[in-house]
Amino acid sequence: RKEVEQDPGPFNVPEGATVAFNCTYSNSASQSFFWYRQDCRKEPKLLMSVYSSGNEDGRFTAQLNRASQYISLLIRDSKLSDSATYLCVVNPGGYNKLIFGAGTRLAVHP
Amino acid sequence: EAGVAQSPRYKIIEKRQSVAFWCNPISGHATLYWYQQILGQGPKLLIQFQNNGVVDDSQLPKDRFSAERLKGVDSTLKIQPAKLEDSAVYLCASSPISRDRVYEQYFGPGTRLTVT
Per-residue pLDDT averaged across A48-53, rounded? Predict the structure, then answer.
């Protein structure tokens, strides 16, 4: 079983749509959680951290369910510029180590 | 502020040849990471340095891969000899030293390696 699992997509949505991505992780001792964004042929960049209480950053909302070992990302009012791969990332504990999922590809069309 | 620098950006070699990649992290970042990203997959950590010491190299194929960070600043990753399955993007990242929290990792543009 992979440590971090994501639906690879692609999710093809029209501008203005709401889309949600899910991610599960296997290590119950994992301590910190993130979403990174990776544009085509570019490096990953931090999109947002994920907190137990849930957190929102503009059109983006991230949630964590520790009991189910599940993380989600909701994007409202999708823009063309949101087209990218969204990587679910987990810190299993210690030394800033990160485990990346394979990513979910999002394509927003006019 | 300058980001993480990597070179070369692209490299094409034949199998069994050797190759080296260079990374210069963000100034002041004590932790440096090398990742391998195969097409369609997420980045996989190969090795993590804290200053010039190795923190984690559990997924580094040590029979062919080596890495060093001699002065605690820039780093070199080497593959010798290369195999076809080493074709990937090699990403370098850096972050401040981690004590009580997980810091954002800043990635360089990567080196795209093709082994033929």
Answer: 90
